[in-house]
Design goal:
Helix content is 35%, strand content 28%. With 159 residues, it is α+β, with helices and mostly antiparallel strands. The chain has a four-stranded antiparallel β-sheet with strand order 1-2-3-4, with helices on both faces. Strands 5-7-6 form a three-stranded antiparallel β-sheet, sandwiched between helices. Helix 1 crosses helix 2. It is globular, with a radius of gyration of 15 Å.
């Protein structure tokens, strides 16, 4: 990934970025629950919600989007790598970017079923602070809250 370019998502990126999100969610062996929205709805969400918010970055390799990162305040909200590009350090590069952008700390949700993601985030210094039954997420799938740095939830969980 010597030629990896990371930049904010632009209007012309939304369909390709949504396709990366979709492919990662539906890859063989994925530990994620299936998306509850259609591909068309996901593309619309990228263009109508994530793009105007201005908190989404794309990673490009040879001009092709291979990963997407979205921050929502101090939450690492979305991190998806195109399955053929997984395991090459792109996700780690994006986590480092998120840490640089939010030096005061980050938090994220991941599904309890996604053991690979939990291990990935632990390797990057995140710690688990709580688990839920999933009643608050759209998929209704049990999830895990993880934090990094001096995030207030880390301080609450250690009190």
């Amino acid at each position: 990934m010597d030629d990896l370019l990371i930049r904010p998502m632009e209007p012309w990126d939304t369909n390709e970025a949504a396709a990366v999100w979709w492919a990662a969610r539906h890859a063989e062996g994925s530990q994620l629950p299936p998306a509850i929205h259609t591909e068309t709805e996901v593309r619309k969400w990228f263009s109508d919600v994530l793009l105007p918010d201005g908190q989404t970055w794309v990673a490009l390799d040879d001009g092709r989007i291979v990963a997407v990162l979205t921050l929502d305040g101090d939450d690492l909200d979305q991190l998806y790598v195109d399955p053929p590009s997984a395991g090459q350090g792109i996700g780690s590069t994006l986590v480092d970017l998120a840490k640089d952008l939010r030096p005061g700390g980050l938090a994220l949700w991941t599904f309890q079923s996604n053991l690979r993601a939990q291990e990935f985030y632990r390797r990057h210094g995140f710690t688990e602070v709580r688990r839920t039954d999933g009643s608050a997420n759209e998929e209704r799938a049990p999830d895990v809250r993880m934090v990094w740095g001096s995030h207030p939830e880390r301080l609450e969980s250690s009190a």
